Structure formats: structure tokens, C-alpha cells
Amino acid sequence: GAGVSQSPSNKVTEKGKDVELRCDPISGHTALYWYRQSLGQGLEFLIYFQGNSAPDKSGLPSDRFSAERTGGSVSTLTIQRTQQEDSAVYLCASSLAGFRDEQYFGPGTRLTVT
Amino acid sequence: AQSVTQLGSHVSVSEGALVLLRCNYSSSVPPYLFWYVQYPNQGLQLLLKYTSAATLVKGINGFEAEFKKSETSFHLTKPSAHMSDAAEYFCAVNMNQGGKLIFGQGTELSVKP
Questions:
Q1: Which end of chain A has fewer CB within 10 Å, C or N?
Q2: Residue B44 to residues A2, A62, A105, B16, B49: CA-CA distances in angstroms?
Q3: Mind listing the pLDDT tens digit for each residue in A28-72?
Q4: Average per-residue pLDDT in chain B?
Q5: Which of A87-96, B27-36, B44-53 has the highest mean pLDDT?
Q6: Which chain B residues are Cβ-neighbours of A35 within 8 angstroms?
Q7: Residue B98: closest CA among chain A residues belongs to which residue?
Q8: Before A107, cis peptide (omega within 30)?
Q9: Coil, strand, or helix at residue A84?
Q10: pLDDT for B98 beyond 80
Q11: For A79-84, which contacts have Cβ atoms below 8 Å and span 24 or more sequence positions?
Q12: Bridge partners of residue A29, in order along the sequence
């Protein structure tokens, strides 16, 4: 079956520009997560959506980062006024329900800010 | 604060040798523990998970891990390494805080012929 998909796979942008990263979770999965993977910081949690509940935004590094999930399915992570330190691989994951369930990861979007 | 520590950022073994990747966690509540593998330029793939049912957990590709509460450890093992096991391995813990995973720093496994 289809897994988690992310687009684009690679994104190069100039410092100061806004970017949008997209995630399509596995159909039927109610929970969706965004993580960031960088050489210096490893894998970091960013944000978590569970059904219709308010998202857990506790991992977002600054107010330049935001995310939304429309219709309980597709999610978009937006980074405004990108900085070089935003360069990383952004990973999306989904799970069936809650914390007991394994998270299935997408291939990631590699963001490079020049 | 909850945390996960993976001892050794890089481990090298010979093909056919035992693989042992170490993971220790700190948690004030019973955790759910996971091992993920990441091949180059790919996302993370679940190897196995511990959710308090059995302390010895078997996963895919011949890997297994044992939960030891007294040692707060969840080490990953495989009896005989294969060249295809070369990848980066991440230990992660879910502290029942809404689903977010806290990852260790990762261990890169190299397998020598």
C-alpha cells in the first residue's frame, strides 16, 4: 500500500524566502508528525497533529515555523523568511492513532537555504 | 528531563559477527521504546518496538532488543551481521506525551567484508 509521501524531495531557496513543504500521510492514520534532521541537532520533533485536537507545537523552533493539517489528512509545514540554519531534512510521519502506535516516516524533504 | 543516549556514534563489525548497538533512556514513567533504521537518502523504517508486553522484542531483518528496566536500557542486537545491515540506527522513546518521539543521536553501523 501507499506509504507517507512528501514533496518536494529537494528544495533550494534563498535566504529570506518562504517555503512550503507538503506531507501526505497514510490513509486512515489520524496522527501526523513533523521532525527535522540536521547534522548538528540530530532528529528533532517539531509538531504533532492528532485528529481534531489542537496540535502540539512545542517543538517549533521559532514563530517563523508553522504547520497546518487540512481535512485531517494532508499537512503543510511553512517556514517564513528562511535562514541558513533552517537547512535540514524535514521528515513527516503518520501513525494509526496515538503514542502506542509506530510512526511511519516519509522519505523527507531536503531543504537547502543559500 | 527525558532523554535517550546511544553509546557510540559509529560501530564497525565484520560480516557474520555479532551486532550490538546500545541505547539507554531516562524516564519517570514506563516508556514505549523503538528502534528505527535509516538507509542513505531514505526515511526511517521501524525495526521493532517495546510496548510493555514482553521484554525481549523481535523485529525485522533478524534484529531483536531486550528491555531491561533495572538498567534503563534497550540494546539492539543481531547474531550475524550482513553487508546490507550497514545503515544508521536510531533509538527512540515515547514518554506518553502525545506521541512525539525523542530520538537518540544515532549510531552508524559499518559492516566489513
A1: N
A2: 15, 25, 6, 24, 14
A3: 999 999 999 998 788 999 999 998 888 999 999 999 999 999 887
A4: 91
A5: A87-96
A6: 101, 103
A7: A99
A8: no
A9: helix
A10: no
A11: A79/A18, A79/A19, A79/A21, A79/A111, A80/A18, A81/A16, A81/A17, A81/A18, A82/A13, A82/A14, A82/A15, A82/A16, A82/A17, A82/A18, A82/A19, A82/A111, A82/A113, A83/A15, A83/A113, A84/A15, A84/A113, A84/A114
A12: none
Within 8 A of B92 by CB-CB distance, chain A residues are 43
Rounded CA separation B4/B26 (Å):
7
User: What is the pLDDT, as a whole number, of residue B1?
Assistant: 65
Which positions in chain A touch B106 (Cβ < 8 Å)? 42-43
How far, in Å, CA of B56 to CA of B90, rounded? 18
- Give the three cell numbers for residue A16: 529570506
Inform me whether the C-beta atom of residue A41 falls under 8 Å from chain B C-beta atoms: no
CA distance between the termini of chain A: 37
Q: Which residue has the cell 537547502?
A: A112
Q: How much is the pLDDT for A1?
A: 55
- By C-alpha distance, the chain A residue nearest B96 is A99
Average pLDDT over residues B28-57: 87
Q: How far apart are CA A67 and CA A8, in angstroms?
A: 16
